[in-house]
Automatic annotation (TrEMBL):
<feature type="transmembrane region" description="Helical">
    <location>
        <begin position="448"/>
        <end position="469"/>
    </location>
</feature>
<dbReference type="Pfam" id="PF00654">
    <property type="entry name" value="Voltage_CLC"/>
</dbReference>
<keyword id="KW-0813">Transport</keyword>
<feature type="transmembrane region" description="Helical">
    <location>
        <begin position="256"/>
        <end position="280"/>
    </location>
</feature>
<feature type="transmembrane region" description="Helical">
    <location>
        <begin position="371"/>
        <end position="390"/>
    </location>
</feature>
<dbReference type="GO" id="GO:0005769">
    <property type="term" value="C:early endosome"/>
</dbReference>
<feature type="transmembrane region" description="Helical">
    <location>
        <begin position="475"/>
        <end position="494"/>
    </location>
</feature>
<dbReference type="GO" id="GO:0005794">
    <property type="term" value="C:Golgi apparatus"/>
</dbReference>
<comment type="similarity">
    <text>Belongs to the chloride channel (TC 2.A.49) family.</text>
</comment>
<feature type="domain" description="CBS">
    <location>
        <begin position="703"/>
        <end position="761"/>
    </location>
</feature>
<dbReference type="GO" id="GO:0005247">
    <property type="term" value="F:voltage-gated chloride channel activity"/>
</dbReference>
<keyword id="KW-0967">Endosome</keyword>
<feature type="transmembrane region" description="Helical">
    <location>
        <begin position="58"/>
        <end position="80"/>
    </location>
</feature>
<keyword id="KW-0129">CBS domain</keyword>
<keyword id="KW-0472">Membrane</keyword>
<dbReference type="GO" id="GO:0005886">
    <property type="term" value="C:plasma membrane"/>
</dbReference>
<dbReference type="InterPro" id="IPR046342">
    <property type="entry name" value="CBS_dom_sf"/>
</dbReference>
């Protein structure tokens, strides 16, 4: 008896091993939602097994330690890889942007700034000009002044822009269609449990990295910050394949992707803390405390890597890092709130206009010609951008210019005050003691103001039509540029108002003669935060990112006031952020946690089958053959099937996934001897009595979920929606007194919510 018992135990262990090694079991098909509960349960079982084995041997203990350490090692690798790629993208984009205007004779790989660094022949007034840097007109026709110089440089600027944009869209179309756009709406959907195969693959990473440089360099109204989140998530997904516990568990992989989102923002803005908060506030669906620590570590490593590369040569992680020294006055909260209102209005307008344009692209023949669309938009952008100084420069350089607080070394038109000598602000402080008239606007500042006003209109229009094209396109920088322009305009107006009326009671207390009481660059920064907040609806993470950009604690209150005002105004005009609007436009199955369900419907109103429909397709725990099950699979497209006792007694036993069922049947036909079409399928624990001549049974109890989530027909849909959100369910079975009546899937809930909101329920496209 003992011998037989031992043989049985060994056989049972081998069968368990066989079940565990069946390839494909527990995986998901494309455009399906993962089962969060099952994935977390699998991970707990794995942890429990490792912990038990670690007490038995030293080797098992070492394996346990390495398993615990593997998560931190993965974060280290993600930070290093993402930081290195971001540094390369920054350097390449800076060089190629300058390439549109000219080339360095000392070495074509130098950008304009680096080319003139070593020159001893630059002057203070024209320190961006040096003999080593030649414009295309000087190289091609030898013209250094006059209309010929302007025309040739204009022509070359447009040609380079068209070439970069054309290459970007062609590479995306040919090699990686998923590399277009921002990527954040899709990453939000993936983090909620949706499967989009190839979206975070190696080809997407390679093409997105290359085309992001090309798209940014083309001068289109887009940024690289959003796509950098996609790039970091691609790095994380690829590196996950080298770690078994992340490769085999979709829920664990999503914890890593949440950390990678933080890394993307960290390298985009040089803001590791802001990146962690961005991941928590904006993109993550499930964010445990352990992920918070690991996100912080990965963001720190990425920022350190980027700092080591030093892409801008100024020891800063971003091009528009700025420091302000003038304190703000309490009365300035009024214009800061006005900027918040402008940001909210801009955000609401942009979302509606961009979604309308994208819907037009989707529903008309415009969507059939993505290459032509990109080329035409690039041509118009380049033609209109070149004549205006503030649209000709890259968006990052524009923001840097607008954030800048006029100092001794500034020769910008924005710093041309009547008290300055030579059109620069070199004598601002020297003449400040003579009175506030030293800050009166000069002719250069007036020119800059109308150019900025024109640039504001162009930026608004081009950002609306550019976001969503078939090239990598981020939204952070264009939105910040719009806000920075508006903020700088308001800041200069406030400054001139204070100077011309400094004797008034409202200004007398804080605009004393000999002091700079208004900082226009601060207004630009607050405006940038307000517009970005209005479009994305970020609040806490936005304020922290802007704080890390400026390094000044005293400006947190203006930033908070503007960010909250912009969110309130934008929410009053529409509840969705731009990312949620694009998720809904694309029909992704995403249950937004911020959207409340207020309707008094019941589970019976949403479940399938509806009245008049055929009964729900089920499997019985015994009595069905391989042929019958395979026919049911072929005739339906459902992702899984409830298992009941019998057709006559439909009491629920469990739930089995379609993919697991298909793989198990194929495996049984291939490896189990004697399995034919008439072989019975068993989900029972004990074998029923069978005829000796009957073919061997296929036992599938190991793939059966014995504890599926169930609700009754009278459960309020408000509770059902809450269960789906908080547990990440993909389906829920509806029962009454133990009898199966129907099923509710995530797609059914999304269709019901769309119907209740008077939207087209068929807009939910994916399974």
């Amino acid at each position: 008896i003992d011998f037989a018992h031992n043989i049985y135990s060994i056989t049972y262990m081998l069968m368990d091993l066989l079940d565990d090694t069946v390839p494909g079991i527990g995986t998901y098909e494309d455009f399906n939602t993962i089962d969060w509960v099952r994935e977390k349960s699998k991970d707990r079982d794995r942890h429990r097994e490792i912990a038990n084995k670690s007490k038995q041997s030293t080797v098992a203990l070492l394996f346990s330690i390495s398993d615990a350490f593997s998560g931190w090692l993965l974060m280290l690798l993600i930070g290093l890889m993402s930081g290195a790629l971001a540094g390369g993208i920054d350097i390449a984009a800076h060089w190629m942007t300058d390439l549109k205007e000219g080339v360095c004779l000392n070495g074509f790989w130098f950008n304009h700034e680096h080319c003139c660094w070593a020159s001893n022949e630059t002057t203070f007034q024209e320190r961006d000009k040096c003999p080593q840097w030649k414009s295309w007109a000087e190289l091609m026709v030898g013209v250094s002044e006059g209309p010929g110089l302007y025309v040739v440089n204009y022509f070359m600027y447009v040609c380079w822009a068209l070439l970069f944009a054309f290459l970007a869209v062609i590479l995306v179309r040919a090699f990686a269609p998923y590399a277009c756009g921002s990527g954040i709406p899709e990453i939000k959907t993936i983090l909620s449990g949706f499967i989009i195969r190839g979206y975070l693959g190696k080809w997407t990473l390679i093409i997105k990295t290359i085309t992001l440089v090309l798209a940014v360099s083309s001068g289109l109204s887009l940024g690289k910050e959003g796509p950098l989140v996609h790039v970091a998530c691609c790095c994380a997904n690829i590196l996950c394949h080298f770690f078994t516990k992340y490769r085999r568990n979709e829920a664990k992989k999503r914890e890593v992707l949440s950390a990678a989102s933080a890394v993307g923002v960290s390298v985009a803005f040089g803001a590791p803390i802001g990146g962690v908060l961005f991941s928590l506030e904006e993109v993550s669906y499930y964010f445990p405390l352990k992920t918070l620590w690991r996100s912080f570590f990965a963001a720190l490593v990425a920022a350190f890597t980027l700092r080591s590369i030093n892409p801008f040569g100024n020891s800063r992680l971003v091009l528009f890092y700025v420091e302000f020294h003038t304190p703000w006055h309490l009365l300035e909260l009024i214009p800061f709130v006005l900027l918040g209102i402008f940001g909210g209005l801009w955000g609401a307008f942009f979302i509606r206009a961009n979604i309308a344009w994208c819907r037009l692209r989707k529903n008309t023949s415009l969507g059939h010609y993505p290459v032509l669309e990109v080329v035409v938009v690039t041509l118009l952008t380049a033609l209109l951008a070149f004549p205006i100084e503030y649209t000709k420069m890259s968006s990052s350089e524009l923001i840097s210019e607008l954030f800048n607080d006029c100092g001794l070394l500034d020769s910008s038109k924005l710093c041309d005050y009547s008290g300055n000598s030579g059109g620069t602000s070199g004598s601002v402080n020297a003449t400040a003691a003579n009175g506030l008239g030293a800050r009166l606007a000069g002719p250069g500042l007036y020119t800059a103001m109308w150019q900025l006003a024109l640039a504001l209109v162009l930026k608004m229009v081009f950002t609306v039509v550019t976001f969503g094209m078939k090239v990598p396109s981020g939204l952070f920088i264009p939105s910040m540029a719009v806000g920075a322009i508006a903020g700088r305009l308001l800041g200069v107006c406030m400054e001139q108002l204070a100077i011309r009326h400094h004797e008034r009671d409202i200004f007398r207390g804080w605009c004393s003669p000999g002091a700079d009481c208004i900082t226009p660059g601060l207004y630009a920064m607050v405006g940038a935060a307000a517009c970005l907040g209005g479009v994305t609806r970020m609040t806490v993470s936005l304020v922290v990112i802007m704080f890390e950009l400026t390094g000044g604690l005293e400006y947190i209150v203006p930033l908070m006031a503007a960010a909250m005002t912009s969110k309130w105004v934008a929410d009053a005009l529409g509840r969705e952020s731009i990312y949620e609007a694009h998720i809904r436009l694309n029909g992704y199955p995403f249950l937004e946690a911020k959207e409340e369900f207020r309707h008094k419907t019941l589970a019976t109103d949403v479940m399938r089958p509806r009245r008049g429909d055929p009964p729900v397709s089920v499997l019985t725990e015994s009595g069905m053959t391989v042929e019958e099950v395979e026919r049911l699979i072929a005739d339906t497209t459902y992702s899984g099937f409830p298992v009941v006792i019998s057709q006559q007694s439909p009491r629920l036993v469990g739930f089995v996934l379609r993919r697991d069922l298909v793989i198990s049947l194929e495996n049984a036909r291939r490896h189990q001897e004697g399995v034919v079409s008439m072989s019975p399928i068993l989900f029972t624990e004990c074998d029923p009595p069978m005829s000796p001549s009957a073919p061997p049974a296929v036992k599938l109890r190991s793939i059966l979920d014995l504890s599926p989530f169930t609700v009754t027909v009278h459960t309020a849909m408000e509770i059902v929606v809450d269960i789906f959100r908080k547990l990440g369910l993909r389906q829920c079975l509806v029962i009454q007194n133990g009898r199966l009546l129907g099923i509710i899937t995530k797609k059914d809930i999304l269709k019901h919510m769309a119907q209740m909101a008077n939207r087209d329920p068929d807009s939910i496209l994916f399974n």
